[in-house]
Amino acid sequence: THWQTWIENHIPGVQRVEQDWDEPILARWADNIRLAIDQCPKSIWLVAHSFGCLASVAAAVDRADKVNGIMLVAPADPERFTPSGVRPADDWDATESIRGLLPTKRLKFPSIVIASTNDPWMQLPKAKLWGECWGSKVLALDSVGHINTASGFGPWPQGLKILREFQSIYDLIPLGEINSINTSKPQRGRGSQLAKARHITRQHLGF
Question: Is 113 helix (H, G, I), strand (E, B) or coil?
């Protein structure tokens, strides 16, 4: 009943990246997304929600050459997560968050952040700050919660419209401008964003 399923059914050729919803571990989620990007023969658009936004950014930054753009809906606050999952209520200050595992510079592909004025998982000023770091267009919706089924987002025609307009704007960018935006080589090995996340995650999970 989630809007992602609804949008998926309205766009031919969409691939869903399956994740373990009970264990939001950044390195694992980002690894699954990056694998899907690598397996796709063409350049792709990413549409993500909540914790999936954080994982998508962490994965896409290493594969900027294959990402046309990314739509981030109601990104979760990275401070609410540690490398091993959701931060326990009694461990708010003791364990390092995943904030340091996320890119903090302008992304080398177009991006849009759709946030809410009353999202319980990310305060709007924080969403705007992350959007500013990533060079994203930020669209703030009024009082729509976490933009999920609990806040009434099954079918979401507005979201599909935003995505299509975002894609059409990108398609109108002159070729020279596209090349100047996205000329990065894929990042692999120890120098990649995901490698850093994997290393920290192993330390926390003990493997």
Answer: strand
The structure's pTM equals: 0.84
**Residue-wise pLDDT tens digits, 161-193:** 999 999 998 766 543 333 334 445 666 665 666
Q: Give the end-to-end CA distance of the chain in Å, rounded to a whole number.
A: 36
CA-nearest of 136, 76, 149, 77 to 105 is 136
CA dihedral 183, 188, 27, 79 (to 10 degrees): -50
Mean pLDDT of 44-54: 97
CA–CA distance, 72 with 50 (Å, rounded to integer):
8
Distances (CA, A) of 70 to 45, 95, 138, 167, 201: 6, 30, 12, 10, 25
pLDDT at residue 146 tops 70: yes
Cβ-based neighbour number of residue 179 at 10 Å: 10
Q: Are 44 and 37 in contact (CB under 8 A)?
A: yes
Question: Whose structure tokens read 């009434």?
Answer: 152
Run of H or E including 67:
strand 67-73
Question: Rounded CA gap, 151 and 62, in Å?
Answer: 33
CB 185 within 8 A of CB 66: no
